Amino acid sequence: MPKKISSFELRPGRKLGHGYVVQSLIGKGIEGEVYEIKEADTGIHRAAKIYFPHCDPRNQRSIRHARKLDALRRCPIVLLYHHSESLTIKGLRTTAMISELCPGEPLGRWIERHSGKRLRPYIALQVLYHLVLGLQPIHRAGEYHGDVHTDNIMIEPRGVGFSLKLVDFYDWGKPAKFKQNQDIRDTINVFYDCLGGRDHYAKLPPEAKYICAGLKHNLIQKRFPNLGKLRQHLEEFQWETVV
Ligand SMILES: Nc1ncnc2c1ncn2[C@@H]1O[C@H](COP(=O)(O)OP(=O)(O)O)[C@@H](O)[C@H]1O
Ligand SMILES: [Mg+2]
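Above are the sequence and the adenosine-5'-diphosphate SMILES. Below is the predicted complex in structure-token form.
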């Protein structure tokens, strides 16, 4: 097993792989780090997700992740994967997945910048709707995200709507149906987090509570057995509250 490390500590200006230069660290998790990088020849900025060698000793995670992103490359919400690079950092062999640099910021951070660190119900519904629209082609392709939460969604407000990108897909193997149901629950959890979570649940309008369903798995599954049903509900429900 490769040595355990908690950071690659790549400094801005350091060369990376064939023709990239590190700009800054933009994300960090248990399995690796994400850096903004620049292609030296073109000046194009991209993202490099570099796995800690002890988390991905035989490159299986990175390969499965890359294959999944490639299979879903026509879904607009999926971050665009470019290629992988084998690297040696601190004397350790590892893999970097090079992909587009998603615009915007993680949804969790965006929510925190709002007053009361939560979104108004109508805005939260808009975010939920865009997320459902984005996830639908993934589920239609028989796939799933596998780890939908506010830090794996990049958001950029655009005009009257939002541009969303999903990062950090998980490959738990097949069959997918069970994982698709989990995506739906996680999506509703994101909506709940947008609204301020447990502290504000009691005071939410009934339209929002109906969707959250108290976060009860069985009730969510019954109301929204697939994304199509959730989408239909969002497009057609009747307002009782004045927004
Ligand atoms: N392609 C990207 N463009 C911009 N930011 C990204 C990109 N990929 C990841 N990030 C940022 O880095 C963070 C960590 O990346 P992620 O793939 O979720 O790794 P982890 O498995 O550590 O959670 C994300 O929450 C996001 O803020
Ligand atoms: Mg993540």
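DSSP finds eight helices and nine strands in the chain.
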